[in-house]
Amino acid sequence: MTLLEWVVAILMFLGTVFVLGASLGLLRMPDIFLQMSAATKSATLGVGFLLLAAAVYFQNSSVTSRAIAIILFLFLTVPVAAHRLARAAYFVGVPLAEETHLDELRDYYDLQTPELDASEEANPRKPVN
């Protein structure tokens, strides 16, 4: 194997490890919020490494520019989409995991309206013990 093939193999291995981590996160995490967090981080990095491997392997400016554009698009949109989905799940009342003892958003959201009120007047900070 040439050095280029080794680099491509390592990038593909890293990509598959991250994608496998995303799928394990979906299976192992107890609630939708943790599942989304694991899947978003791992799948974004996994697909990014796989696209980077394709760009290195083909060594074509067209393939490389498309791979970089897709990676940038994923890194910009996937976290935002996951945040929006998690916020919607919180508003419709998807329960938190039993292991979650603290709901920091409860004091800041009015579940009747999708508004966040983070002002000091509405929610004075509680002293930390």
TrEMBL record:
InterPro entries: PhaG_MnhG_YufB. The chain crosses the membrane at residues 6-27, 39-58, 64-82. Keywords: Membrane, Transmembrane, Transmembrane helix. One of its GO terms (molecular function) is sodium:proton antiporter activity. Pfam families: PhaG_MnhG_YufB. The keyword Transmembrane helix applies. This is Na(+) H(+) antiporter subunit G. It comes from hydrothermal vent metagenome.
